[in-house]
Design a protein that fits this description.
The protein is built from 27 helices and 5 strands. By secondary structure, the protein is mainly α. Helix 4 runs parallel beside helix 9 and helix 20 packs across helix 21. 51% of the residues are buried.
């Protein structure tokens, strides 16, 4: 059975009224330059896609206000710019954050991305890097080299940081590190307050580690997200920096920003390198027999394994940066005094929450490596047998570190392989094989996001599923959020999430399926709640998990397969240990009644303790979901 690959990923949650993904932005400054060459080779694209991109690139290059007659995508007349018929509904229910993004896109526009008729953001970045490569390589090093930390808060096995250090060391100049805190990005991207707190604490650890190497970490809050590129250019100018290094992030907003910034830097005589490091195997490196991106995990994983076996050097780890020249302490003394700011007002925790979360989730790469070592030394061998049982403590608990980049996926795979009896990733100890395949899901979902970017834009991988009539029942949604549905396994999982900022992977599937199919609520409401509450919130993995549960994504659970929460509870928490831990109203109930107290003779006891009856009946909900899915998909193909 396919499951949410989120133990190292993110199935993510705030009780604000509902959700968003990062939709299309049409700011002129983020478009392709009108002077760009259309003959650039895009290394991550099949030939057909390159042809289509070259044909469409200039059509999108023109700002809205100056669109010409030649442009087939004039935003004032082009049907691809028309919003989805349900765009208003999505906006009213908080699914699309109109403060930052346009209305929900139409199915036609999603299919245009899918059919290579609109250049993907990753293609825009690759084009910018390809077309500027020769000029960037001619730029001489000046007073410093800069690494821009984003979701890679570590010194070890960090490709961009390593390259920046090598460039600085080669020319005998200081390396400067920076991190930009963006309150608007935190809001637009639904970053959970607990995750923001973890990031800021990880920056404290990182700052101390870099200081031991005489490398300053400059951290600044930039209130307006659109101001970030300009502020970076100002800082580079102040520091006399000639080279800026950063690792790729595959979300739409970030890809567009970096594509624009590569060119903006060049205009200032600065070389910006954006390098692939987030994935073990980067998006675009794997293709099916027909030359297309895989949309099913199993053949993709076989290709992923074969690729690494063929290119064994891909599991070589990058050294931490070297020490800066002694002069760095004097020349950039003010940067060493840079402090890590407090969380923005919109993402602050209460004092009680800070105390709780900080005791549960120590930050930094030292903690990450220690957890990885303990897991591989002690528990990884039993991982495949125990991973689905939430009371067993089988997961590695590394998802928060992978999401924030205090640990790399490459380090995880390399370490697990080195604990095995073989160098083959698909051989040897079963627990190790299974865990490596779970880490690989993180790569898979990022490959999907890069190739089908509309999943970042409030649109499911299967656009036709937007025709399903979802419910927007506030009472049911609140019961789900608070763990008061009357289904003990669902309620236990939601309470774990709300208390810990984390939920067991099997439980993420159970509660996701329950929201989408039993309550028939718009799955994007659950996706948003997860992102606004999870400490390990990762957009690609979270979106992929919800796509599975709602049957709207790649490699999905077919819509007619609906989890029975009672059977899931009996199978994966047979003794009720997990339920009793998180639903104290039921801790005194013994035997199988723990899974369904009202139907198994313990209703009066449950009621006395304040535990609610079921908000919906399983069979009735199942029948309703099947009918609604069938009706919606029927309209899509009519």
């Amino acid at each position: 059975m396919i499951t949410f690959r989120l133990f190292v990923g993110s199935f993510g949650f705030t009780t604000s009224k509902f959700f968003i993904r990062k939709p299309q932005s049409f700011s002129p400054e983020l478009r392709i330059s009108k002077n760009m060459s259309t003959s650039a080779v895009l290394p991550t694209l099949p030939k057909k896609a390159v042809t289509n991109v070259k044909r469409k690139a200039l059509e999108l290059a023109e700002p809205i206000a100056t669109a010409t007659k030649k442009s087939k995508l004039n935003p004032f007349t082009d049907p691809l710019r028309e919003p989805h018929p349900k765009a208003q509904e999505a906006e009213e229910n908080g699914i699309v954050l109109r403060k930052y993004y346009p209305p929900e896109m139409s199915i036609a526009r999603a299919l245009a991305y899918k059919n290579n008729e609109i250049p993907r953001p990753i293609e825009l970045l690759n084009t910018a890097l390809s077309e500027t490569k020769a000029e960037r390589e001619r730029i001489a090093v000046k007073d410093s080299v800069v690494h821009w930390f984003k979701c890679d808060l570590r010194t070890k096995d960090n490709k961009s940081l390593h390259l920046a250090s090598e460039k600085a060391k080669e020319m005998g100049v200081p390396l400067i590190a920076m991190y930009i805190v963006s309150p608007q990005d935190f809001e637009a991207h639904l970053t959970a307050p607990v995750r923001v707190d973890f990031i800021l604490r990880a920056l404290e650890v990182l700052r101390a580690d870099l200081a031991q190497l005489d490398i300053p970490l400059y951290v600044e809050t930039v209130e307006k997200r659109k101001r970030i590129p300009a502020r970076i250019l100002e800082l580079l100018g102040e520091w006399g920096a000639s080279h800026l290094f950063a690792n790729v992030e595959y979300e739409v907003d970030e890809l567009r920003r970096e594509a624009s910034l590569v060119r903006a830097c060049l205009e200032k005589g600065i070389a910006m390198d954006v390098v692939p490091d987030t994935c073990v195997v980067s998006p675009g490196e794997l293709a099916s027999g027909t030359g297309n991106q895989y949309a099913v995990y199993s053949p993709w994983f076989r290709s992923w394994v074969a690729y690494i076996h063929k290119h064994a050097e891909m599991l070589n780890l990058f050294d931490a940066p070297g020490r800066n020249p002694e002069s760095a302490r004097t020349k950039f003394a003010n940067l060493f005094e840079s402090k890590i700011p407090s969380a923005p007002p919109n993402k602050q925790l209460t004092e009680d929450e800070k105390k709780r979360f900080r005791s549960m989730w120590p930050p930094g790469e030292h903690e990450a490596h220690e957890r990885l070592k303990r897991f591989c030394d002690i528990r990884i061998g039993e991982y495949s047998e125990l991973r689905n049982f939430p009371a067993k403590g089988a997961p590695s608990s590394l998802s928060v570190h992978l999401a924030s980049g205090t640990l790399s996926s490459r380090t995880c795979v390399r370490t697990a392989r080195d604990h095995n009896t073989t160098k083959k990733l698909d051989g040897g100890i079963q627990g190790i094989q299974t865990w490596i395949s779970e880490v690989a899901w993180r790569d898979f979902y990022k490959h999907v996001m890069a190739h089908w970017p509309y999943v970042c834009m409030n649109t499911p991988f299967k656009p036709e599923y937007t025709n399903i009539e979802w419910e927007y029942n506030d009472e049911h949604f609140k019961a789900w959020c608070e763990g008061r549905t009357g289904y003990p396994i669902v309620d236990a999982a939601m309470r774990q999430l709300n208390y810990c900022g984390y939920m067991h992977n099997r439980c993420r599937m159970i509660v996701g399926s329950f929201l989408a199919k039993h309550l028939l609520l718009d799955w994007r409401m659950g996706e948003k709640y997860f992102m606004e509450h999870l400490i390990d919130g990762d957009f690609a993995s979270n979106n992929g998990g919800w796509g599975f549960c709602a049957s709207t994504g790649v490699d999905p659970q077919p819509y007619f397969r609906i989890f029975n929460p009672l059977l899931q509870s009996e199978k994966f928490d047979a003794s009720g240990e997990y339920i009793r831990k998180w639903v104290p109203e039921l801790e005194g109930i013994q035997g199988n009644a723990i899974h369904d107290p009202y139907a198994r003779g313990k209703g009066s006891e449950a009621k006395k303790k304040g535990y609610p009856k079921r908000v919906v009946d399983h069979k009735e909900s199942r029948d309703r979901a099947l009918a609604r899915y069938k009706e919606g998909l029927g309209r899509a193909t009519a």
